[in-house]
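Morning, I've got a small favour to ask if you have a moment. I've been staring at a protein lately and its backbone has me curious. You're getting the sequence in one-letter code plus the fold written as tokens. I've dropped the whole record in just underneath, so have a look:
=====
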Amino acid sequence: MVANWGLFYYMTDPQLYQIHHLGGVGDIMMTPTYKRITNGECQFNWEPSERFQDAAFKRIKSDPAGYLSRCLRQMIFVWTYIPGSKENAIRAPGLFLLGRLVMLTFYFLVFFGAVRVWRCYPLFVLLLWGYALYTAVILFPVCTESRYLIPAYLGLSPLSMMGAARLLDT
């Protein structure tokens, strides 16, 4: 998944991670660090990409705990908000928190659906949960967005429907 070494590097730099977390890549492009590493080139070009990669690995070696904590924070953050609503975290925090509640409800229903389906189709549950776990592990050593989780959400949706059915049956 790390084809964009810039996003990988942002996870290793606390300042750039914070800028990305609150704003986005556009805000990072204005920083002196970004300009120094890219040297005026597109970050996807070979040389800037290699510079991002080298710098990222050096930072991980110097602060592995910080990098892992940012990865965990990013993973939790991205899995708990509705895709496309990140801007609401600053502009409309109440609406953003409501969206997070909706996502937590979705996972609650997924859990109950998985328990219900597990008795008859454990392989089905393992495949859906496995895909979601695979997605989480592959995507989140880098700064990414919740839109990349949409296939995992779609995969988990049958379990959420079964969870809702189970709760409505009782």
